[in-house]
Amino acid sequence: SLLSRGVFNLKKIKKGNDYTLFFEKETNRLSHFIYESSNYDYLICSFYPEISFKKVDKNISYVERQISGTIESSLYISFSNNNFPVDLVNLIVDVFAWQIDFFRITPGDTYNIIYTEEVIDGEVVGVKDIKAARFTHNKKPFFAFSYDQGLGNDFFDDQGKSLRKTFLRSPLKFYRISSKYQKKRFHPVLKRYRDHLGTDYAAPRGTSIFSVADGKVIEARYTRNNGYYVKIKHNNIFSTQYLHMSKFAKGIKPGRLVKQGEIIGYVGSTGLATGPHVCFRFWRNGRQVDPYKQNDLPQGDPIDPQHLSAFNYVKEKYFERIKV
Ligand SMILES: [Zn+2]
């Protein structure tokens, strides 16, 4: 197994994965062992002239697909009832994160999505990305078109405006909202009603917590209620705060400049908390507000005039196909 080092960890061989053994015709001795290490690659072990290992990528082909549907209860249920790839649910929720509250979907909402599927050996192995989408919520259509104006793919509406705000929607990549911003919430630890001025994101202990925007760390310390927490000032109007961390990320201390998406700490349950989660607090002009009710947050860059005709070409191509 020393020889396989750096190519493949033999301890990772899993029950249920396919393998093939090849024997020499004349001598019947084992010549090759081919193991499907994942959907994307396989491992070839040759026994002669000496044992060697090689990892080979499978050929991926990309196929454009289109799906549409009407929601009766939740987006997830609609997808699984139709046998649509559930990986796509996370992607679409991300695309429209600031436009649509997917926790308040109404029956009758509709969607139409064009996306790219990854296919290997004739089998679908995953979803690569979304090309264009329409989501009609409360009879109002929202559009998203993927376009790269030199800074990586981003999503824009039919007017070429960015769907992204200058803040990330949440400080975690995958999460479950366990408690929303609300006045007079029954506190699970204190057993009485108190205002809950943050949004709680439940996630496993140790999950990375990101800064939702560029800024400067102004507090990184411990208090009895907040546990280990970080507060970041983004500008003279906005600050954000992240409570109950298990620990800070390396180098996070007051004065440190952070980038949007930079890891500032890890999920924990220090302070007044029942289980691992981040209590995310959004400060505007010194008051804690519900970030999802701020309809005037600054937006990401729109399509640049020099990209406008190329963007319009892409947009028109997809618009016709998803508008109804
Ligand atoms: Zn909270």
Structure description:
The chain is mainly β and 324 residues long. It has three domains: 17-57; 61-156, Roll (Nuclear Transport Factor 2, Chain: A), CATH 3.10.450; 176-290, Glucose Permease (Domain IIA) (Distorted Sandwich). The chain is built from three helices and 21 strands. A hairpin with a 4-residue loop joins strand 8 and strand 9 (153-156). It is globular and about 80 Å long. Bound molecules: zinc ion. Zinc ion binds next to loops.
Beta-strand percent range: 35-45%
Mean pLDDT: 88
List segments where confidence is low: pLDDT < 50 over at least 5 consecutive residues: none
What is the CATH fold-level name of the largest domain? Glucose Permease (Domain IIA)
The count of helical stretches stands at 3
| Total strands | 21
Overall 3D form:
globular
Distinct bound molecules: zinc ion
Whole-number count of domains: 3
User: Tell me about the biggest sheet?
Assistant: 10 strands, antiparallel
| Helix percentage | under 10%
- In sequence order, what are the helices and strands, one letter per element? EEEEEHHEEEEEEEEEEEEEEEEH
Tell me, what is the CATH class of the largest domain? Mainly Beta
Secondary-structure-based class equals mainly beta
The gyration radius over C-alpha positions equals: 24 Å
Do you know the CATH architecture of the largest domain?
A: Distorted Sandwich
- How far is it from the N-terminal to the C-terminal residue, by CA? 57 Å
Name the CATH homologous superfamily of the largest domain: Glucose Permease (Domain IIA)
Give the SSE layout:
Elements: E1 19-23, E2 30-35, E3 41-46, E4 52-57, E5 61-70, H1 75-81, H2 87-95, E6 110-120, E7 123-137, E8 140-148, E9 153-156, E10 176-179, E11 182-186, E12 193-196, E13 199-202, E14 208-210, E15 215-223, E16 227-233, E17 238-248, E18 257-258, E19 263-267, E20 277-284, E21 287-289, H3 308-322
Antiparallel strand pairs: 1-2, 2-3, 3-4, 5-6, 6-7, 7-8, 8-9, 10-13, 11-12, 13-20, 14-19, 15-16, 15-18, 16-17, 17-19, 17-20, 20-21
This protein binds zinc ion.
Residues 179, 196, 198, 200, 279 line the site of zinc ion (ZN).
